[in-house]
Amino acid sequence: MTITQEVSTKVKDIYLPEPATVLDSRLLTEAEIYLRFKFDDPKPHDYKPGQFYSVTIPGIGEAPISISSSLTRCEENTFEMVVRKVGNVTNALHNLVYGDKVGIRGPFGTTFPVDTAMKGRDLVFICGGIGLVPVRSAIHHVLDNRQDYGDISILVGTRTPADRLFVSECEEWSKRDDVNFLETVDVAIARKPIWTGPVGVITTLLPRLNLDPAKTTTIVCGPPIMYRFVLMELRKLQLPNDQIYLSLERRMKCGVGKCGHCQINGKYACQEGAVFKYSDIESTPEAI
Amino acid sequence: MSIKKVGSAEFKGWVQSLIKKHTVYGVQAKEDRFAFDVLDAPEDLRLDYDVTILPPKKYIQPQKEVLLTFDENGVFESVMNEESFLILGVHPYDMVAISQMDKVFTKDNRDEHYMAYRERATIIVSDVQTASKDVFAGCMGTSTGEECSGHDVLLTLLADGSSLLEAKTEKGEALLDLIPNAAEPHEGDLEARSAIWESNRKELRKHELHVAPSDLPELLERSYDHPVWNEKSELCYACGSCNLVCPTCYCFNVQDDFNWDLKSGTRSRCWDSCMVSSFAKVAGDHDFRPLAAARYRHRYYRKGKYVPDMIGEIACVGCGRCITSCTAKIANPAEVYNCLLEKV
Questions:
Q1: How far is Cα A195 from Cα A200, in angstroms, rounded to an integer?
Q2: Considering only residues 220 to 249 of chain A, which have any Cβ-Cβ distance to chain B shorter than 8 Å?
Q3: Residue in B with minimal Cα distance to A99
């Protein structure tokens, strides 16, 4: 017996990214870029609405980024993201062009329950700013399986008209008979682009909904400050907490429940979130 | 598994043979304190140490560890430790900490980088000969070789200067085979060892904990808004020393470094500290735990509730290093947990 133990060389390294290639990149606003990627490995890659990938720019680093596409309409092995320029990795992501290589780990995290809790329900999507990005994945899924759900309302709030994301898609949704689409901007003082719609924070849209609390499930995603006010409004509308799903952002370094950065009290946002049922975290002080 | 009794000269010879065969990390004097370092000669080994500056964790989860290499074409390759090594003189409380790390790194998503070190480590635990000034392992049930697991050999120095060596694994058995004509212990020797354990359970209590460790999760459950978090953290420098000396802290940061060609490079992880202000901050400067009091509380909840909820063991082993290393003198877990018992 020697001290050296044989360790299998064919181990699964949870930290090893796999290569993907940029298929498309274009600026949606001054600060947000749309990116479409394809995995280099042709084996099927599955992901669900609400999940995220950890994206590596070699040498710059890795960051957790929400998936914005749905496999119901995305070409096999591809996925889309929209990235706001805020840190080292996201700034580098803004420089990507067709053919560039990135590394991908994941998908990580929980999902918007499109196949379970949301089925057969009336749905309200409440998206603030880039909160629309992950929720778009669920919206696509739901619209592509329209018969599985009841009434659908999509609420979108943006800071200014110039910050609006997926403008043509929003227009499409607003024209559909089977979708109640409401949009607002916080402020509209600039001359361009012209904005003739509602002005005010996203909570001002909520009283316009005519919903049945017993039949409705709500998906909320936006900046941290938005949750508190939206949740207050939802309480007024008597929506039960176990029918509200939130996607929470946290600092993440590993995505696999080890590095400790994303903990919300005892919960690892990367494993038990980023999509949480509100009733599961309402008594978790660090959550909202 | 066998138990051998060896005299001091024989013991030296055994350590010499270990050094010849393996990379041995042993406890040595470092100025007026002690540290694990590469052991070149048996004479340098100081098993009479009280506590090491850093826990032996540093060999299994190194301060900085390369995870992978990358190049600009999107080629990523795992880098795994391939070196075997032996750690000589680990105290029981530090061994308890290592077996807790084994659990957190294998639970759910198995961390092969951690395991590449852990599975190549041979560990010889040594019962404590000198109590450090802040140790409270006796309160945590981690003070003796009887109370830890996962090691290969247990070494206990007896009053007559001889040592008892007990093999705990096949690897440990093989190490004992290196001692020619080792004597079998008498019953009296085993009784003497039990007496040492009994004494260590009493002696390694430089601070008293007035709550059973197993009751800590429940105590913390109702102490979230206790004033102690604010009181203590007002003095906190957020330096992270308590994290860095802790044998059960395992949070890490990840960073990329380019090679000189500016095309390829390495990704490594390094120890991180939940007490440092940037720990929960995201790009755009939004900080999810901006208050020192919240970070201070988080650390005690990790030790007494969050990690225990995950692995079923209290993640403080009573080594006392945080108490000694804290400049502001606010990091005594026994004192903090005792405070929570007081009604507010």
A1: 12
A2: 224, 249
A3: B73
3-state helix, strand, coil in chain B (%, to 5): 35, 20, 45
A41 touching B (Cβ < 8 Å): no
d(CA B71, CA B77): 9
Contact B320, A280 (CB under 8 A): no
Q: Does A3 touch chain B (CB under 8 A)?
A: yes
Q: Considering the entire predicted model, what is its pTM?
A: 0.94
Residue B202 distance to chain A (closest CA, Å): 33
SS3 B301: helix
Site of tokens 């499930």: A217
What range does the domain containing B80 cover? Answer: 3-203
Are B178 and B236 contained in the same domain?
no
Q: What is the ipTM of this complex?
A: 0.92
Interface test with B, best of A13, A56, A65, A66 (most B CBs within 10 A): A13
Kindly state whether residues B291 and B330 are assigned to the same domain.
Answer: yes
Which of the residues A2, A7, A22 would you substitute to probe the B interface, choosing the one with the greatest number of B C-beta atoms within 10 Å?
A7
Per-residue confidence at B76, pLDDT binned at 50, 70, 90?
A: very high
Q: Is residue A18 within 8 angstroms of chain B, CB to CB? A: yes
* Neighboring chain B residues of A259 at a CB cutoff of 8 Å: 251-254, 269, 272
CA distance B56 to B76: 30
Average pLDDT over residues B95-117: 97
Show Cβ contacts of residue B88 under 8 Å, excluding neighbours closer than 6 positions: B15, B18, B24, B25, B26, B27, B39, B45, B124, B126
Which parts of chain A sit beneath pLDDT 70?
1-10
- Tens digits of per-residue pLDDT, A172-181? 999 999 999 9
The total of structural domains in chain B comes to 2
For chain A, list the domains and their CATH numbers.
Answer: 18-108 (2.40.30.10), 122-247 (3.40.50.80)
Would you say residue B227 lies in a domain? yes
- Cα separation of B111 and A107, whole Å? 17
The pLDDT score that the predictor gives to residue B284 is 85
Residue with tokens 């004509």: B181
